[in-house]
Amino acid sequence: MATRDGMRVIALEEHYWDADVASHFTGRNSTRSSDLLERLYDVGELRLREMDEAGIDVQILSHGAPSTQRMDPQTAVPVAARANDRLHAIVKAHPDRFAGFAALPTPAPEAAADELERAVTELGFKGGMVHGLTNGEFLDHRKYWPIFERAQALDTPIYLHPGYPHPDVIAAYYQDYLKEYPAFASAGWGYTVETATQGIRLVLSGVFDAYPGLKVILGHLGESLPFSLRRIDQALSRKENTGGGSFRETFCRHFYITTSGNFSNPALLCCVMEMGVDRIMFSVDYPFVENRPGVAWTDTIPLCAEDREKILNGNVARLLKL
Questions:
Q1: Is domain 10-320 classified as CATH 3.10.129.10?
Q2: 57 in catalytic set
């Protein structure tokens, strides 16, 4: 179907839960509301109805955090493969409405690279998603580079999604306010800091020099990095260190961002001015964020029709080869 003045709407960061994966979750994930859990586990009638009501044509499905990032290697590898097989069946049942990002068992980096290749070449997935730290480690460590090497070879992106911050960070930064404001450590601020740090560390690590075709996606309008890009570039410019260019040049060459959960015209225009409209894609962050406000916001975006269509469907169709 065609929506939004004849424009298709493709939503890129839309989550579900696989029961097998979720059975390994503990702590805050075990206390989700019943309404949220219903939508996380529904990949059929309810989800499709709410997509139709909001005017969303396609969702790129991805497992919710923390996926397999906190499992031991022996557990993560088979659990991720089984989850990806089941997601493949979900997409196959509604191929005109769903596509998929693979769950990657990053605790076993070589196996994660192999699973990414299987998911892309055999299951038809559009990339892989990683949620926060892998058992306390950032992905810039060289032992994780086989994942990025394989992503480049497959010409498919890696989506860096937030995960709950490291326990030491929780204790130092957020603990005093968590009882009254639990989202302070998650969507209210903690997710942004953790994921933006992940992105910065990747640039500083040299992984993009090693794999110049690597593509990375950040949600939530780039986790605030576009707003600070000039200042970060001034402080961390790598021109004197490598032939890869400045921090800003590297970031804008390799990163794409989505609008998930951040439906702000001033923030969007900042991102357009810093990165260019071709690097921005529409997302909702369903079911943690409702579909309708996100789609309704797109009618207010102060850009021309051509640029709005790029954000709603054109950029993602090009990047993911839809």
A1: no
A2: no
Contact of 248 with 275, CB cutoff 8 Å: no
Q: Would you say residue 118 has pLDDT above 50?
A: yes
**Four-residue CA torsion sign, 139, 142, 146, 151:** positive
Per-domain residue ranges of the chain: 10-320
Pairing relation of β-strands 255-258 and 158-161?
A: unpaired
DSSP three-state, residue 124 = coil
86: amino acid identity, one letter:
R
Phi and psi at residue 102, in whole multiples of 5°?
-75, 140
Among 4-13, 216-225, 308-317, the minimum mean pLDDT is found in: 4-13
DSSP result, 287-311: TTS-HHHHHHHHTT--S-HHHHHII
Q: Who contacts 54 (Cβ-Cβ below 8 Å, separation ≥6)?
A: 290, 291, 292, 294, 295
Catalytic residue among 140, 285, 299, 307: 285
pTM over 0.85: yes
Average pLDDT, integer, range 252-264 = 97
Q: For residue 98, is pLDDT > 70?
A: yes
- At 293, which amino acid appears? P
Token pair, residue 277, equals 């409209």
Residue 30 pLDDT more than 70? no
Name residue 29's amino acid: N
Q: Which pLDDT value is given to residue 6?
A: 80
Q: Are 133 and 69 in contact (CB under 8 A)?
A: yes
CA 172 to chain centre: 26
